[in-house]
Design a protein that fits this description.
By secondary structure, the chain is mainly alpha-helical. It has helices spanning 2-18, 20-29, 38-68, 88-112, 131-156, 163-194, 198-220, 235-268; strands at residues 75-78, 82-85, 224-225, 228-229.
Length: 269
């Protein structure tokens, strides 16, 4: 019993840590919905995703080998340049990573092209989506992000002999992490709304998340380019890069404020 409780706590912690990038995506994507619907969109997207995560967990437990075994028709090589052995897991992760990179680059480019400084990510009418479209995007990406965490959860519960107990433990951890996201999503969105300069930082973090997923997908697909194997970005490296980005952003912001205050003092004198 003590082992089951410890495993549950580890799973909740794992889901919370792995859910950070997902939470950031939800906060940025929800800004594309009509202003009055943004809070409801975040809640609906997360609630639907929690239910679908449970379904995905059941599916993965039942047919885990299908997602891990390479497809024979997607395995081979192109001369000595490209070697590959794609499986279901790698295709999902690669597609999710590519979509996130595309989204981040599109939004960064959109912000650079702004002529009105008061406009921000998803704030203009042209970039707005319907509430249902935003909810759909949140749910789909939530499932992509949850794929690895569910597989990790299956690995962590492999020592639990009773398969029903293992499934219940994983389901509780998924619901707990989903409720935590539900609690924090609005707070992060409010913070970004009040500190709009951090939206750029958020988009670059999202871009790095996409790169991390693409490298992981390439590793899962056993990709080799000119004989060099694709190595996935570790979570440790990811969080280190994020910490550096945040520190640089804070220092740069304070330095800019100092320059502005000095300029104002010189003008007054």
């Amino acid at each position: 019993m003590l082992e089951v409780v410890f495993t549950l706590l580890m799973l909740v912690l794992l889901q919370a840590v792995l859910g950070f990038d997902n939470l950031l995506y939800i906060s940025l994507e929800s800004k594309k919905a009509p202003l009055e619907d943004q809070k409801r969109v975040r809640k609906m997207g997360i609630l639907i995703a929690i239910i679908l995560r449970i379904v995905l967990l059941f599916v993965l437990v039942s047919i885990i080998d299908f997602f891990q075994e390479p497809f024979s028709w997607l395995s081979g090589k192109i001369g000595d340049v490209f070697h590959f052995a794609f499986n279901g897991h790698s295709l999902i992760v690669l597609a999710g990573g590519a979509f996130i990179i595309y989204t981040a680059i599109k939004e960064i480019w959109h912000m650079i092209g702004k002529t009105d400084l008061n406009e921000a990510v998803g704030d203009d009418h042209k970039s707005r989506k319907t509430s249902n479209a935003v909810i759909t995007s949140i749910v789909i990406m939530n499932l992509v992000f949850s794929f690895d965490s569910i597989l990790a959860a299956i690995g962590l519960t492999s020592d639990i002999e009773n398969s029903t107990t293992a499934f219940i433990v994983m389901a509780i951890a998924i619901v707990a992490s989903g409720l935590l996201m539900l609690l924090l999503a609005d707070k992060i969105s409010v913070f970004l709304a009040k500190n709009r300069m951090y939206e750029v930082l958020g988009l670059f973090i999202l871009f790095i998340v996409g790169i991390m997923l693409v490298t992981e997908g390439g590793h899962l697909a056993h990709l080799k380019i000119f004989g060099n194997e694709i190595v996935p970005m570790s979570k440790t490296t990811f969080y280190f890069v994020i910490a550096i980005l945040v520190i640089v952003d804070i220092v740069q912001g304070r330095y800019q404020k100092k320059l502005i205050s000095e300029q104002e003092e010189n003008l007054n004198h």
